[in-house]
Amino acid sequence: HAKAQGRNGIAFYKQGMSDAVSRQLKLEVALRKAIEERQFRLYYQAQVNIDNGRVSGAEVLIRWNHPELGIIAPDEFISVLESSALISIVGQWVFETACYQLAQWVAEGIWKDDYHLCINISPRQFRDADFTAGIERVVKKTGVPAHCLEMEITENIVIYDLDKAIEIMRDLHDLGIRFSIDDFGTGYSSLRYIKRLPVNVLKIDRTFIQDMCTEKDDASIVDTIIAMARHMGLDVVAEGVETKDQLELLKSLGCPNYQGYYFSPPGTADEFKQLLLAA
Ligand code: C2E
Ligand code: MG
Ligand code: MG
Ligand code: MG
């Protein structure tokens, strides 16, 4: 019955429907199938301590392994998951799968206690009534050290209920989970809001890193973010470091950590494990 209605719905829309909407709907159908058929994969990208050049953790990045199209990057589908509420299902899967992987690396003795595994959390996941409970359940079930977990949120979290977001973050903080602000410097929020969030880390958006060696303004912004973080007692990760020059400049500005193709691109769990073994 539901299916027939869906068909009618699509037929009804078809006449006036823009290509973008039609594409969105097709993608949504394909994503529902991807969830059922377990087509998602997790990639891991190393984070590196700038002082000693060693791995300090990893960011978990989702990929869609499409049966015909191959590996699809998240920018192609995360927004569709977000607008269709499927993000809650997929987000929970990401968190659980990442925790099982972490538990395995801990058991193998290759995950050090001060490493962080960083998981992107969509603002919409925060609005799920059972978000915190779901996270707590997975942490208990997998037995991972919660202090090794870091949730990456964006400044846009404040467009929903700020007080509610703070409350949820506090609860997760109490479990030991850390928070970072992803793509820092590109959102719509003011520092006044950011200040209220219980955050441990700022991730400098890669657009600032990209041009910092040639554009004085970008270098100033990066410099300012690093200094501000230091004064506020926050850790910093520079995103998207691709060249030696960028790394050297970041080092001279006192940036403590970085992530980027220069050290290594995101890879499979096995590929990242090789980096852990070499660390
Ligand atoms: P993000 O969280 O800012 O992740 C960093 C992005 O920069 C990743 O893109 C990564 O592959 C890319 N990157 C890393 N180093 C470099 C570099 O040196 N140069 C350049 N040009 N890019 C670099 P990716 O994997 O395509 O992910 C894109 C975005 O999708 C992420 O941006 C994040 O916002 C979102 N995303 C990824 N996985 C998840 C997830 O599991 N859940 C949610 N909610 N969002 C996710
Ligand atoms: Mg991120
Ligand atoms: Mg980012
Ligand atoms: Mg991003």
Q: Helical stretch count?
A: 12
- Major pleated sheet: 8 strands, mixed, barrel
Mean pLDDT: 92
What assembly state would you assign to the polypeptide chains in this entry? single chain
Outline the fold blueprint.
Layout: H1 2-14, H2 19-36, E1 40-49, E2 55-66, E3 70-72, H3 78-83, H4 86-107, E4 116-120, H5 123-126, H6 131-142, E5 149-154, H7 162-175, E6 178-184, H8 191-196, E7 201-204, H9 206-210, H10 216-232, E8 235-238, H11 244-252, E9 257-258, H12 269-278
Parallel strand pairs: 2-4, 4-5, 5-6, 6-7, 7-8, 8-9
Antiparallel strand pairs: 1-2, 1-9, 2-3
Helix pairs in contact: 4-6
Characterize the structure shown.
- 49% of the residues lie in helices and 19% in strands.
- The chain is built from twelve helices and nine strands.
- The chain has helices at residues 2-14, 19-36, 78-83, 86-107, 123-126, 131-142, 162-175, 191-196, 206-210, 216-232, 244-252, 269-278; strands spanning 40-49, 55-66, 70-72, 116-120, 149-154, 178-184, 201-204, 235-238, 257-258.
- It has an eight-stranded mixed barrel, surrounded by four helices.
- It is globular.
- 32% of the residues are buried.
- Residues 59, 120, 152, 182 line the site of one magnesium ion (MG).
- Residues 24-279 form the EAL domain.
- One of its GO terms (biological process) is phosphorelay signal transduction system.
